[in-house]
Design a protein that fits this description.
By secondary structure, the protein is α/β, with parallel strands linked by helices. The protein has one domain: 3-Layer(aba) Sandwich (Rossmann fold), CATH 3.40.50. The chain contains 9 helices and 6 strands, in the order βαβαβαβααβααβαα. A 6-stranded parallel beta sheet has the order 3-2-1-4-5-6, with helices on both faces. Helix 2 packs antiparallel against helix 9. Bound molecules: adenosine-5'-triphosphate (ATP). The site of adenosine-5'-triphosphate has 18 residues, from strand 4, helix 4 and helix 8.
Length: 202
């Protein structure tokens, strides 16, 4: 049975905080493949995305070239807002034999009640939670509503013990726009070159 991870986001731009925790999840959950799903229209972001969907797609691939199991998918590059529950249903129909693992940051899990049909996510996929600085398992569980806590406790939720990385796409965009240096280790060099070549975050 194929164990398939699905990891959606705006990836505006992708950075190592989107790669290293996922490699840890691959190891821990023994995933055969993880599909990154850059989303043309993220339903929950107040502003942006800033770079075009195709630019974000290319940057994801540039960041993943060295990792055979981590691949990019165009499934959420659609005109209408991409809802995760519909993505999971699509993959369940397309790969009925696969075991689906929805990967998300711990900050996203804390906000999941605002997602369309969020209760339906848990029967469709196991949830792999990547730790993000400031959003420990204790904080997420402690701040969850009783209903979310019940879903977390009752669902198949795996907390990945990845090293928290203090990297955010918002801070990268801010630094690029201000002409500031990007610390080494924040994002792969080809992605930095690509951002500069096309002046993605002026
Ligand atoms: P911003 O950094 O501006 O807050 P973002 O990186 O959270 O943006 P997305 O690209 O949509 O926005 O994130 C995709 C997924 O990656 C989300 O589930 C998010 O929680 C997770 N994520 C982002 N940064 C990290 C990080 N440093 N560590 C762990 N998970 C992260």
């Amino acid at each position: 049975m194929m164990r398939l991870g699905l990891y959606g986001g705006s990836f505006d731009p992708i950075h190592y905080g989107h790669v290293r925790p996922v490699l840890k999840a691959v190891e821990r959950l023994q995933l055969d493949r993880v599909l990154y799903l850059p989303t043309a229209r993220p339903p929950h972001k107040a502003e942006g995305p800033f770079a075009s969907p195709l630019h974000r797609f290319v940057m994801v691939e540039l960041a993943l070239l060295d990792h055979d199991r981590l691949q990019v998918s165009d499934f959420e590059l659609v005109e209408r807002p991409a809802y995760t529950v519909e993505t999971l249903e699509g993959f369940a129909a397309r790969f009925p034999e696969a075991q689906l693992h929805l990967l998300l940051g711990s900050d996203s899990l804390a906000a999941i009640e605002s997602w369309r049909r969020w209760r339906d996510l848990f029967p469709l996929a196991r949830v792999g939670v990547l730790r993000r600085p400031g959003w420990s398992r204790e904080r997420v569980s402690g701040s969850a509503s009783p209903e979310l806590r019940a879903a977390i406790d009752g669902g198949d939720v795996n907390w990945i013990e990845n090293r928290p990385l203090e990297i955010s796409a918002t801070e990268i965009r801010r630094r690029v726009a201000a002409g500031e240096r990007l610390p080494g280790g924040w994002l792969p060099e080809p992605v930095v070159q690509y951002i500069r070549k096309y002046s993605l975050y002026p």
